[in-house]
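Thread: Newbie trying to understand structure tokens

Hi all, I'm a second-year student working on a class project, and my supervisor (Dr. K.) asked me to get a predicted structure for one chain before our next meeting. I've only ever worked with sequences, so writing a 3D structure as a token string is new to me. If someone could post the tokens and maybe explain what I'm looking at, I'd be very grateful. Here's the chain:
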Amino acid sequence: MREELEGTEVGLSRRKLLVGAGLFAAGTLGIGVSPMGVLAGADDAQASAVAYPWPYKKLDIAEVGKLAYEGYYPKLSCSYATLKGIFPLLAKDIGEPYRSFPIEGMQWAQGGVAGWGTLCGTLMGAGLTIGFITGDNAETIINDMMFWYSETELPVYSPGKSAHAEVKVKSVSNSPLCHLSTTKWMSKAGVGFKDPRRIDRCARVAADVAMQTAMRLNAWASGEYKPEHKTKYSITEFGLTAQTNCTECHENGVPKLVK
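---
Reply by user tm_fold:
Sure, no problem. This is what the structure looks like when written as tokens:
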């Protein structure tokens, strides 16, 4: 009977009563605590209290790349893989808030946001990481990441014997957008989207971005980071925040805006 009640309103009320009792006891003792702290324990309560920006310790770049590459499989989510290369290491070295951060919640960003081909999911993972850690410096570092991604022949990372496929081709996207980055590489490699080589290419790019993120964070942590680029957009010139390479694909289809 007890097991049957757990899924009913009676069971729900019983659980509410237990939570309420815990809160009442904490209040009686003068302890500030949240309902989640009562249910999940002191570690989770501590995680919610970590100040922004988050603490950081320098990372081993090679280890970051290895974890990110391996993290791409079997989820096939580049955004998840980028975080997978960084957060577990910080969880080991620092603890909270990295230990309890649910990086699985970033899987939606794969394929340029749920397969829409917009901003590469690796850059979203990088941006989230940099934003939490560097605070007011985040936009400067992320801006440099966008340039690096757009101007670099990718992938650079090589997993060696642990490779899932042989990937020899590299390409420059001239854009941070998933659909341009991926299709330019596919066109140069002569393979389709579901080809194992394209899949492994994206796994390697996730490793590249995770490593590049860690490299920049290491430099920032040492006080040695120097911005490499000015922001690419110009409201004065274009009338909005924008890239300058739209005509590569859209030619005369780019909307004309009132400045």
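A couple of things are worth pointing out once you decode it. The chain has two domains: 2-48, 61-231. Residues 1-42 have pLDDT under 50 and may be disordered. Feel free to ask follow-ups in this thread.
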